[in-house]
Design brief:
The chain is of the alpha+beta class. Helices cover 25% and strands 25% of the residues. A hairpin with a 3-residue loop joins β2 and β3.
Length: 142
């Protein structure tokens, strides 16, 4: 649900690794993931071609908090991240949430600078609250 203050709802900030065949255990070991890193609102999710370490709204409903925690967790692993990329994996930070026309997601210059310390691109994905795209793709200009 989108909060009444007009910001994105249910934000999730994830560190994502994709590739043809992902071994979750190998990725977790390469990034020095310890069981103590996982807690309420922070978890590893994976499939056969992807692996994600995600902070969701149970960790914090504030994207800035999620970004800060993600950068603090992965900045010490920059060399390992670079090795994953050299090995052919695609790596990025994904920021997602639910949005309606006029809602927004704001990142401070500090959060953007922190993200820039990681050698990976950042993607932004929105879903409408109902999960159905709005009919007019330019409705946000109204």
């Amino acid at each position: 649900m989108t909060p009444s203050n007009g910001t994105w709802g249910t934000p999730v900030t994830s560190f994502v690794v994709t590739g043809e065949a992902i071994d979750s255990k190998i990725i977790s070991e390469a990034l020095n993931l310890a069981p103590s890193d996982l807690r309420e609102g922070v978890g590893v999710h994976h499939g056969s071609t992807w692996w994600a370490y995600a902070y969701d709204e149970r960790f914090s409903g504030n994207v800035e908090d999620q970004v800060g925690a993600l950068v603090a967790r992965f900045a010490p692993c920059v060399e390992s991240v670079t090795e994953l990329i050299r090995a052919g994996h695609e790596v990025h930070v994904s920021i997602s949430g639910t949005a309606e026309t006029g809602s927004r997601m704001i990142l401070s210059p500090r959060a953007l600078a922190d993200l820039a310390t990681l050698p990976v691109p950042v993607t932004f994905t929105t879903l409408t609250v109902s999960g159905v795209p709005e009919e007019d793709p330019l409705a946000w200009l109204d």
